Automatic annotation (TrEMBL), chains A, B:
Keywords on record: ATP-binding, Ligase, Nucleotide-binding
UniProt domain ATP-grasp: residue ranges: 34-70
Species lineage: Bacteria, Bacillati, Actinomycetota, Actinomycetes, Micromonosporales
Organism per entry: Plantactinospora sonchi
Family annotation (PROSITE patterns): ATP_GRASP (PS50975)
A single MF term (Gene Ontology): ligase activity
Protein name: Acetate--CoA ligase family protein
Pfam families according to UniProt: ATP-grasp_5, CoA_binding_2, Ligase_CoA_2, Succ_CoA_lig
Amino acid sequence: MPVNDSSYDREAVRRVLDQARAEGRTSLTAPEGRLVVEAYGISTPGEGLATSADEAVALAERIGLPVVLKIVSPDILHKTEAGGVLVGLHTAEAVATGYQTIIDNARAYKADAKIVGVQVQQQLDSGHEVIVGTVTDQTFGKVVAFGLGGVLVEVLKDVTFRLAPADTETALSMIDGIAAAEILRGVRGAEPANREILADLIVRLSALVTDFPELAEVDLNPVLATSTGATAVDVRILVDDNAAEQPYRFTDEEILASMNRIMRPASVAVIGASAETGKIGNSVMKNLVNGGYQGEIYPINPKATEILDRKAFKSIADVPGPVDVAVFAIPAKFVPAALEEVGAKGVAGAILIPSGFGETGNHELQAEVVAIARRHGVRILGPNIYGYYYTPENLSATFCTPYDVKGGVALSSQSGGIGMAILGFSRSAQMGVSSIVGVGNKSDIDEDDLLTFFESDPNTDLIAMHLEDLKDGRSFAETARRVSKTKPVIVLKAGRTSMGARAASSHTGALAGDDKVYDDILRSNGVIRAPGLNDLLEYARGIPLLPTPQGENVVIITGAGGSGVLLSDACVDNGLTLMEIPSDLDEAFRKFIPPFGAAGNPVDITGGEPPATYRNTIALGLSDPRIHSLILGYWHTIVTPPMVFAELVVDVVNEFRAKGIHKPVVASLAGDVEVEQASEHLYRHGIVAYPYTTEKPVAVLGAKYRWARSAGLLGD
Amino acid sequence: MPVNDSSYDREAVRRVLDQARAEGRTSLTAPEGRLVVEAYGISTPGEGLATSADEAVALAERIGLPVVLKIVSPDILHKTEAGGVLVGLHTAEAVATGYQTIIDNARAYKADAKIVGVQVQQQLDSGHEVIVGTVTDQTFGKVVAFGLGGVLVEVLKDVTFRLAPADTETALSMIDGIAAAEILRGVRGAEPANREILADLIVRLSALVTDFPELAEVDLNPVLATSTGATAVDVRILVDDNAAEQPYRFTDEEILASMNRIMRPASVAVIGASAETGKIGNSVMKNLVNGGYQGEIYPINPKATEILDRKAFKSIADVPGPVDVAVFAIPAKFVPAALEEVGAKGVAGAILIPSGFGETGNHELQAEVVAIARRHGVRILGPNIYGYYYTPENLSATFCTPYDVKGGVALSSQSGGIGMAILGFSRSAQMGVSSIVGVGNKSDIDEDDLLTFFESDPNTDLIAMHLEDLKDGRSFAETARRVSKTKPVIVLKAGRTSMGARAASSHTGALAGDDKVYDDILRSNGVIRAPGLNDLLEYARGIPLLPTPQGENVVIITGAGGSGVLLSDACVDNGLTLMEIPSDLDEAFRKFIPPFGAAGNPVDITGGEPPATYRNTIALGLSDPRIHSLILGYWHTIVTPPMVFAELVVDVVNEFRAKGIHKPVVASLAGDVEVEQASEHLYRHGIVAYPYTTEKPVAVLGAKYRWARSAGLLGD
């Protein structure tokens, strides 16, 4: 049932809201609420008075069948006794006939009774109780919620959220996305809810709050959902003009114009550059110079003439040519004045390393700085950051150490400590990185700007972000939805267990714990969520190495039966599908493995097998087009030592790559310490491999699959 | 309400079961079922006919209040009209009075009516629907289940299991242990269920199936639980004499007598010892000799006179002195004959390395071997194993490589591959190990025997086990319950996601997925479950190093605010309690940290602080007796480099240890690659520290807490 936009009666809603505003009310009355949702085609339990059979039919059709008919007469008190009540009228004909029957019965019962008419009421004696609501989330704006109704679901908090407006597909994903979804499909012979009609109601409600953002919170609780309808039994609406406020947004063109100059600057000025070791202004200079940055570097220091063999300037105003980026290495209190000069110079980005702004409670100073920047068209990164790296330009605009392993992973962190962990892990794992960015207080540039730049950046294949909040979650989600179609977006959302201390003025509001809202909205917009810091880093490192799988069929080939069981567990944990091996393929595997080995999936080649058994089974897994991914479980034996295994796997995978066959291959290595070197060898050749764990390789493959699915890249 | 054992009417149950058996039935009729559970004091909806007020009161008291009274008279059809129905009678007095009122009303209504009496019915118009049931689990035997009733819970599978018989404490833990437990406590003004009465019903049902093990499955579904009662509305019972079978068990004394000889043998024979490199019989000999084992080593080989400078014997019968252990390195088919000789020699343990038994489908051979061993009083380890290590005796009775880092961790694995991963991880992490044991096919010696030995072993502080199944889960659970009071028992249960393909002949049976049963029973008997292989290994490595915490108050001290947030997330994930810092303690912390730092918890000392700030705050955390554990978040800066941090932490922790103050301290290090060395330094000194992860140190601390709680070692 497609929603017909023109069916929305905006004027009716406007009249109600104008009235409420005129009276200074923050909530609507029940009849007002009903009127508002009905104006958007949401059914409420209908009723009305008919004075003819035609009117009864018209009413019934407007209300929705089935209906109950009841005689309305001041002279008939015992309606049932009088034959004045008919229930379960499912067709227009039944209503028309029923109307006449009731009138006839009434007249027969009491010939002189004054008959006012027949009340037509929607019959609501069955159906699933669900809740549909909307809140105005401080991060995401208008958010629509769906869950089962009733106290049990309230206790279990089985509810799901999406950005409003939601389209039909999104609304259907909500209905299917709650833990108890099976209930709505009808279990133990119960009547199922009509998914399409319920989705339509979600679409309509989310359209309503989008059109009228002053509708701060709406509860339709319960909605009775049957196989033929969905009716909002109770409607509760809170209004608040502040709920209609929108955050300021730059256009993508504006973002890219600035970010391109910031990430690939022709020239960088260091405000507060210093020759003195231990000073931040010295570390930044050293990192720019030693990192190999080839653009112009301008030290700015009123008291120096030369720093690290570069001519120093008293003010950025004195620099002869244009400047793209100014890195601030001066105390917070000097930033406003310096930023005025930076702005006047036409700099694209001010990199505010200093702390002492919002994070220490100095919100005024931060606001002042943002205002100066906005006035000059300067974008600010920070304040309170370690700086940023962009390896394609050999740019290490940071007081940390340079990073030089180039590659496709772009990372950002909201915290300096986490930034250092990113740097250390990357260096230790030799992870190829395009960029590491500290966003700190996010007074201006935030993850949304970074996503937009990294999307356009040919040097970036994957974006991994640590964040504690989002300034404009809606914008981030919308950008992520687009970007993630081509590049995986991994997010570690910290603070996920601290439920928002939200004033629970509505039922939906009370259910909307921060993390559940983040989780549902990020995931439904293509973001892969990392459960922890180490996962963020391992996903970032592994996902770009794995080719995108062409389908869901995963096969485990293992030398250790025990690893096979644990790898299977990990597949289920990570939403991976162990392929049902067709009999011809089973037969083919059996040719290579001992008679007491187990074909099926896992393919258990058994311990003590020579390299050829691994090679043959892996080659079969790569060659058969019905298999889409391989998980290898290696068992260290004298017959096939770790490096022999690693080299044969690299060989056979390369052999197939040369033939144009690219499938994700991950490996778990069980054995003595030599498996560490073997795992490294595999990883260096694009096979995501770990020693002493069956969980990690499968988790990385699972993350790759989640991305491939949401990007629509998996085959049927 | 304590259960009065003598209140059980065993004879009544026996009569019903004898009748059913005589008729060859596998299920009881509804009245039989009702009779059986009533014999154990479980209420069913009671009713009966009273012909006097006294009888009515007696009936009501037997049935349970409140009751409904109804006139029984062939001459009164409209009972209500006649004043012949009274509902909600909550006291004996009300019943007595009510009886008379009804009789009087009836006589007044129709003086000549024939009055048969008054029907006394239990009033069951309210209450929570719950399910209580029992199944006969192939691993654990009699298992009792509890969950909410109704279709929603069936969909969400919110049900919990314990061994039967369950005591009152256990039964209460079940009621509190389901996800929807809050429902039973009464939400939104609903009447709560009476926990004690419900627990009593669980205790009674579990006693019933323990006394009558032929009761294969019992469903009480639903049980209506109110604030004053619990009534089994429907009773369904399946009977099966096979369900009464008990597995064979050795006594603890028998187990220890054998295991002590096996783990600390004075002499070891190697059946199939070989001088030829590459043979298993050669590897075993080398490992025994090179591992430094000081007992007698007897190579057995009909064709050799000397192997590795040890005199070889044609048969174990030829060995002059007694032999404690025989390691078999011969093909499976030769095992029975050799085992006869081994048995005749009075060997305590036969270590069956060879494969080719049950795991390849050769169950007959395995059964034959077990029968031979049982006949001779020999215990079998294996077959199909890598052997075993016991480092206090320098014993490496395995074809793998020797292991020599001695310590308190005992490990076992059901799979050879996982055993190799244990070995490699241990060596790589330099984990101090007392024993590593492969149990393989577990034809005889299993985890239960190992637990019993390790409990008594002064060299073992913690037991970590990989297992795919348990031969006798009940015995294991009972042993683990006892052992875990003094030594942590960590279990990685593989195959947890493959739900048992159980024939769902009862409701409870259908809900009893393998893993949920394992999970509930292992946890409720003190076992710490590791979610994955790496967790098993990290828990094993870390838990023994941490002192047992004296209470729940955990404090995070962090240099990086971002790490603090992630560490807090991890605390919630791991069930740890972030201490509410009292104001005097808050004040004390504030003295050491910058004004813009955050006291509270996490204590955010802010980045860029010198070593003294870490030292002072950590010392405060160790000295204040209200704080029980510390989690440190380190941020790599020039001011406090990684090794400076690591050394100061070790210093200050040692300082307090010297004063007798032992608290668990774990650390997450965020920084460049130098944090790896710093983490190792910390770990070597008993501070569980990891680089690049906030999750792992907290997970290990969380596991330590789970153990300390279940062992009853935490303070109030």
